[in-house]
Design a protein that fits this description.
Length: 254
Amino acid sequence: MAIIDQALKGKVALVTGGSRGIGRAIALALGQRGAKVVINFASNEAAAKETATAVESVGGTAVLSGFDVANSAAVTEAIKAIGKDHGSLEILVNNAGVAINGLLMRFSDDQWDRTMKTNLGGAFHCVRAAASMLLRAKEHGRIINITSVVGEQGNAGQAAYSASKAGLIGFTMSTARELASRGVTCNAVAPGFIETDMTAKELPEAARAKLLEQIPLSRIGRPDDVADTVAFLAGPEAAYITGQVLRVNGGLLM
């Protein structure tokens, strides 16, 4: 973890997909810096509760908010409730996503639609619903979208996922331009290959060794690598950074 301070004390932060993996690490990093973290989950409430406990164990404050980011009405209702219950929303981290892999010629319409509605539509729903509160926060307003290295370079077997993450980059830049006049920033973080429970199960040792050969820093990324970058963008140090894509990939893509 990076050096811990209380630069986010008094700020309310919503982290979508915050129940595990990168989302859990982001919730911890924001909580350690003093933010009240609203941990979103779609179905795994038990995992979200574990994240909340972890945030509180490091001195942070956490609450849960269950909704599916792909459901526009549910997003609007949930974010309205966050404003009512907590009085504000200064930080929005769009982390929720799905990765459905498969060759393009065999990919179904349902798989394509689910990927787009969650990864790209989810960020749109959340930003639209939270925009008025973020604008009221003025120079404290922060939007951080979690994209991916494959959104810039593509990857065989991930056409839908890559397209959704590339779309998120364009969405980030347009949002940054729309909200900049009020001091609100919008940036994207593009992780490379990050070690999580899910990726550990999916990557055979031979594939891992081959991947490491392509990473100049010679290691797989950790969730904390992404979380610390998000915490920086959420803080006062990043007030003059907007419309950018910060690559956290060990040099995999330069």
